[in-house]
Amino acid sequence: MTAGAFIGAPLLGVLAVGLATGVLLGVVAVGIPLLALLALAGVPVGALERRRLRLVDPAPAPSPHRSPATPGLTAWLRLRAREQATWRELAYAVLMAFVLWPLDLAVAACTLALPFLLAAAPAHLALTGGPDEGGVRPAKLWLVEGYPAACGTAALGLALLLVLLYPLGAYAAARAALARLLLAPREAEAQARLAEVTRSRARLVTAFEAERRRIERDLHDGAQQRLVALSMTLGLARLDTDPEGPLAARLATAHAEADAVLAELRELIRGIHPQVLADYGLPAAVEDAADRSPVPVDVDAGLPRLPEPVESAAYFAVREALANVARHSGATRAEVRARYADGALRLTVRDDGTGGADPARGTGLTGLADRLAVLDGTLTLTSPPGGPTVLTLEIPCSPRPPEPFA
């Protein structure tokens, strides 16, 4: 605890001098940046105190601060100014400078000084010349004139020290609890872990989307082109073959199979990442999905271009919803409505089917909900028996900035 004086006393001087200088120079606007920097004085104090906390509390005391998303001093300062942890650390630094370190010294003096002076009675007596010089008064309490009395006083001091160690430990525990409350709160640790998990999930989704795009490009530029060339070669071979011969029938069958495989591959590529979504955005992609639905679908989607993960998640949600409408609902008509308002995309898929949809029955909605959760989105399903079934998704996002003209 006495080590707190080596931190608190200089900190008191820094805060006092910095505050006085900032106020005096504030009239010429120079002191304002100084006062702003003074608000960050708690950051190094908090880091040092979290290290000292390990001496009395073995539980981890991680930093509650987050790492800036972009490098640079400006990003670091902007993030620190917005964090609650920065202001808690400043409050602790002020408390440390004006209250805690004098209190630490007072408690140490009351619990350690008296037992130490009593335990040092034999040494004190020897240094003053021994019993022949009239004796000593340890802690100014009583006169000790001989070594037997000095040894008894020392034993009393050691016993008193053992008695006072418990309240001293209780005070140290209280100080550690206060430091942890302000500098490393449990909820801050949990929030930091949750934020890191969320960022990790977002990175995984981004990597997954990039991998989907790579596979789509490889299939489009590789396998699809080879199948097109094969189909053309088979077609030319049919032209050079006698139409009435047995080889013509086999070539015709192979040509039809190549065309069927090519059609399936194109459908697979469209399912991985439709080109219309990348080129024209979510409204056009939803229109394309509606045109391919066996159930007639009315589309009302007036949207700006949104971030790619948002458009991709919303598109696959619509596709899954329309697939469920066709397979399970018995509906004769469906409707897709999408709007961007109040900083969020809100998309609704409604059908006039029999209702009773249950995500637990493996309709793919649980996976969609998990995917939307990565984007802080929500998926709501209302499907009473007898219908109608309404699926609503909401994703907070900002419109994509317009791309510069080439």
From TrEMBL:
It catalyses: ATP + protein L-histidine = ADP + protein N-phospho-L-histidine. Residues 3-183 form the Putative sensor domain. It is an enzyme of class 2 (transferase). Residues 211-277 form the Signal transduction histidine kinase subgroup 3 dimerisation and phosphoacceptor domain. CDD domains: HATPase_UhpB-NarQ-NarX-like. Keywords: ATP-binding, Kinase, Membrane, Nucleotide-binding, Phosphoprotein, Transferase, Transmembrane, Transmembrane helix, Two-component regulatory system. Residues 383-393 have a biased composition (Low complexity). Residues 383-406 are annotated as: Disordered. Residues 313-397 form the Histidine kinase/HSP90-like ATPase domain. The chain crosses the membrane at residues 30-48, 90-118, 147-173. It comes from the Bacteria. It holds the Pfam family Sensor. This is histidine kinase.
